[in-house]
Amino acid sequence: MRDLATAVADLRHRPVNYDEGQAPPVVVDGWHQDRRVLVLGREGPGEPEPGGVVETAGALVNSYEFSDPRILRAAYHLPGDLVGRDMLLEGRFLVLRFLIGVRITDQHNEVRPGANGPERVIGWSYRTLQGHLEQGRLTYEVAKELETGRVEFRIIAYSRRAPIPNPLLHLGFRLFGRYTQLQFYRHALVRLHRLMQAPPGPPAPGPDGIVRAPSGVEPGRSERWTVRFAHPGR
Fold first, then answer.
1. Which of 40, 90, 139, 167 is deepest in the core (most CB within 10 A)?
2. Is the dihedral of CA 77, 81, 83, 84 positive or negative?
3. Nearest Cα to 176, choosing from 66, 92, 70, 109?
4. Is 92 helix (H, G, I), strand (E, B) or coil?
5. What was the pLDDT predicted at 223?
6. Which of 121, 128, 151, 155 lies closest to 33 in space, CA to CA?
7. Residue partners of 209: CB distance under 8 A and separation at least 6
8. How far apart are CA 31 and CA 134, in angstroms?
9. Handedness of CA 38, 43, 48, 51 (dihedral sign)
């Protein structure tokens, strides 16, 4: 749809909505810092195996298939580079829909020291854009212990509420924002574990070049009654 493609394209004009120099690890007061880990399985020792756990999980993470569509959906342009990709997220709470933007700023594919020896880590990070309800950085990564073959999915984040001019939205996010955020983390781990058993195919953009993620999710009949807020934060 042209409107969605335009909304995704317009994100390129939105800057990141916080100063990285005033965020963790430089400044930690006032920020939530989260880390969630899911063991995905094992491969043989050494670098990731073709078609193995790491490759399968990495594809699901890159296409945002792990997101629980009852809480958060995404739209992004494809084809295109991962770094620099703008994603329009649709946060969902009861009959409310919040259209907010993020930008992928880093891609990871490196060997790092880990608790049980060296790890191959792949993944990416995004930062929130102007208009988002939150400020912060979120990293999704798949890590393989090269000596043991153990594979994990990790969500690593720091965040805080952004200024929200609408007083009712400000109060609602103050009451339910953190709860919804933690629920999203929990559901993402459960959903990725389930998808690993029967992974969907690669993401397929629509005629407008936009991928709707996760795949296979269609608007329900009740969508006509929803209330939408585009970029309600600062």
1. 40
2. negative
3. 92
4. strand
5. 79
6. 155
7. 5, 77, 78
8. 11
9. negative
List, in sequence order, every residue forming a beta bridge with 18; answer none if it has no partner. none
Q: Rounded to whole angstroms, what are the CA distances from 199 to 6, 36, 142, 161, 177?
A: 30, 22, 16, 34, 30
Indicate the pairing of strand 227-230 with strand 96-114.
Answer: parallel
**Residues counted in the chain:** 234
- Residue 2's pLDDT is 52
Q: What is the pLDDT of residue 212?
A: 94
Nearest to 60 by CA among 133, 140, 135, 149: 140
Look up tokens 């790890």; give the residue.
119
CA dihedral 166, 71, 139, 113 (to 10 degrees): 140
Backbone dihedral angles phi then psi of residue 62, each to the nearest 5 degrees: -60, -30
Sign of CA dihedral 42, 45, 48, 51: negative
What is the pLDDT, as a whole number, of residue 1?
Answer: 42
CB 129 within 8 A of CB 101: yes
- Taking only the tens place, the pLDDT of each residue in 104-145 is 999 999 999 999 999 999 999 999 999 999 999 999 999 999
Please indicate, yes or no, whether the overall pTM of this predicted structure exceeds 0.85. yes
Q: Which residues of the chain have pLDDT under 50?
A: 1
Q: 172, 111, 96, 163: which is closest to 141 by C-alpha?
A: 111
Please identify which residue in the block is written with the tokens 């891609």: 107
